Amino acid sequence: xxxxxxxxxxxxxxxxxxxxxxxxxxxxxxxxxxxxxxxxxxxxxxxxxxxxxxxxxxxxxxxxxxxxxxxxxxxxxxxxxxxxxxxxxxxxxxxxxxxxxxxxxxxxxxxxxxxxxxxxxxxxxxxxxxxxxxxxxxxxxxxxxxxxxxxxxxxxxxxxxxxxxxxxxxxxxxxxxxxxxxxxxxxxxxxxxxxxxxxxxxxxxxxxxxxxxxxxxxxxxxxxxxxxxxxxxxxxxxxxxxxxxxxxxxxxxxxxxxxxxxxxxxxxxxxxxxxxxxxxxxxxxxxxxxxxxxxxxxxxxxxxxxxxxxxxxxxxxxxxxxx
Length: 323
Fold this sequence. Notes:
The chain has 10 helices and 13 strands. The chain has about 325 residues and is α/β, with parallel strands linked by helices. It folds into 2 domains: about 5-70, Spermidine Synthase, Chain: A, domain 2 (Roll); about 75-305, Rossmann fold (3-Layer(aba) Sandwich), CATH 3.40.50.150. A 7-stranded mixed β-sheet has the order 9-8-7-10-11-13-12. A 6-stranded antiparallel β-sheet has the order 1-2-3-4-5-6. Helix 7 (about 220-230) crosses helix 10 and helix 8 (about 265-275) crosses helix 9. The chain is globular and about 60 Å long.
């Protein structure tokens, strides 16, 4: 598929320096642009459009529905931020359910857990899974072939709604809740209540939770409020993702009274990581995890002011790309 097929790739006649550009508008007055060397591969399905490009700044980049998903130079930040905290804060993690995660990198990170016996990954789009397996080896690094991984090509709701299995960790690595997209029903109070039934005693739920930009913080604040209707303990944290050009947020949830990342000690987290993980984290060591959970005042104030609860009757649609 040629680059010109995609309306969100602009060329130099639009006022940008010479070359072809992927332009992502965060609002009517704010954008981030990546100059592209080449479109490497693409996959268009009933659910989403995925394109793998090579950029000047971040090497290979995956773009889905005009949103930057990850780049080969900094994907480890997002995927470690999502997976390493629950692996370290759970007392003895052995089983994981991943909803989404088509690139295979989230599974890769959970499979680094020495005690992890099984990872179930449910993703709705078989074409994107095939695309990732073929073109994104530097992301998944063989995770699709790990015998502990069970890959379900189905709507990520189904293991929650139809299964009786329970998991130590459930992870939502889902695309944005775009209207008409495959994921928005998985961001609702009703779904989270059902999801909680899939957690084993002491289990943790972790989810990506949208941008940390003040102009786009509404999704995170509403998700935090919605999840507090379901779980006794809900903790917000964030990490800056260079290819996104913004902080990205996450939520870690449980009913366990013992979960308190704000009391975490960097040294103890590093000792726990040495016991529990194969290889050292590139990003999420003890100091980084301490910092991620130290949320700034404006985050906390925005969450206090939020009155939005996301339900099936009142869903929240969201995309980072406004162009």
